Amino acid sequence: MSEAAEIAACVLLGVGTLFILIGSIGLVRLPDFYTRMHAPTKATTLGVSSVLAAAVLALPGNHLALAAKAALVIVFLFLTAPIGAHMMARTARHAGIKPAAGTRDELPKARIERLGEGGVGR
């Protein structure tokens, strides 16, 4: 492996690790379910993508095959992480989980009232 590829792989691993660490800290430190869900979804998507890119550069073998597999994983991750987060947020909203005080709530109040006390729409 060339020195430039080693440096690029180290930088990508460092960036990916930093993003994953920030997402993990956000999961623990943020005030409510909605913001806790947002931090790891965004940060770990970028972090895992960086780690996979570093793996393509650092692992021996057919780099084209490794790049194709890593690209498929990255595309799958970028498609499924936001959808999963959106579905969790909708479920939490329907279950009546309130955002933290000071969090901007842009869903119209009429929609919240229609959900009823139990949080399940009728």
Structural features, described:
This protein is mainly alpha-helical and 122 residues long. It has one domain. The protein is built from four helices and no strands. The radius of gyration is 19 Å and the shape is elongated. The mean pLDDT is 85.
Strand percentage lies at under 5%
Structural class: mainly alpha
Largest sheet: none
Average pLDDT metric: 85
First-last Cα distance: 61 Å
Give me the oligomer status.
Answer: single chain
H-E string: HHHH
Structural topology:
Blueprint: H1 3-29, H2 33-58, H3 63-94, H4 109-115
Helix pairs in contact: 1-2, 2-3
Keywords:
single chain; 122 residues; mainly alpha; 4 helices
Summarize the structure.
The chain has 122 residues and is mainly α. It has helices at residues 3-29, 33-58, 63-94, 109-115.
